[in-house]
Amino acid sequence: MKVIITDHQFEHANRERGIVEGAGFEMLEAQCKTEEDLIAKVSDADALIVQWAPITANVIAALSNCKAIVRYGIGVDNVDLDAAREKGIPVYNIPDYCIDEVADHAMALALAGARQLKQTEERFKAGTWKIVPPNLMNAFRTMVFATAGYGRIAREVLKRAAGFKFHLAAYDPYVGEEEMKENGVEKLSIDELFDRADILSLNLPLTGETNHFVNAD
């Protein structure tokens, strides 16, 4: 059995290699970035492990013996799910992949924006020091921190926001009001989300439904 990692951005894949080869299988690292490279290098794979490579309908059509496609991550938007379904190849994700790391980074960006760190840094670089911020800042306790989506990452982001005394809110049509309320989160409609959120964190999988969630309208 041949397991091929289509691409990865890590220093090495020793952990994956240890697991795969320890089970008696062969593992290759293809480092493909294009559809053409994938078709040329991974068509004989029994299983694919994918990070960013585009697993298009053409790539899937070229797979002669593939039994599984596994995505490094939660989202599977770089895999043509319809084509995989038609060919009978199951697609798997890693539902807890980097949840804390993403939530930490989202919170860091939110705090940097709310406290105008970029604008202040630009003043420093220009040789100007002023105690007054470039624009009026509000106390966190008076601000609404909202997420679009209320999945695993969104919940972790809101847990972090709670520590700064933000009012917590979220929009998610698939999660009930009571479930959010139990966690101290106010459920918003989509119109309320854009009307009331002082800080909005987008924590959504990329699907046909969520594509262009934020748009000119």
What does this structure look like?
By secondary structure, this protein is α/β, with parallel strands linked by helices. The protein has 2 domains: 2-92, NAD(P)-binding Rossmann-like Domain (Rossmann fold), CATH 3.40.50.720; 99-202, Rossmann fold, CATH 3.40.50.720. It is built from 9 helices and 9 strands. It has helices spanning 14-22, 35-41, 57-62, 81-87, 99-114, 117-125, 152-162, 177-182, 190-196; strands spanning 2-5, 26-29, 47-50, 68-71, 91-92, 144-148, 167-171, 186-187, 199-202. The strands form 2 sheets. A 5-stranded parallel sheet has the order 2-1-3-4-5. It has a 4-stranded parallel sheet with strand order 8-7-6-9, sandwiched between helices. Strand 7, helix 8 (177-182) and strand 8 form a beta-alpha-beta unit. Helix 5 (99-114) crosses helix 7 (152-162). The longest helix is centred in the middle third of the chain and has 16 residues, at 99-114. It is elongated. The N and C termini lie far apart (50 Å). The mean pLDDT is 96.
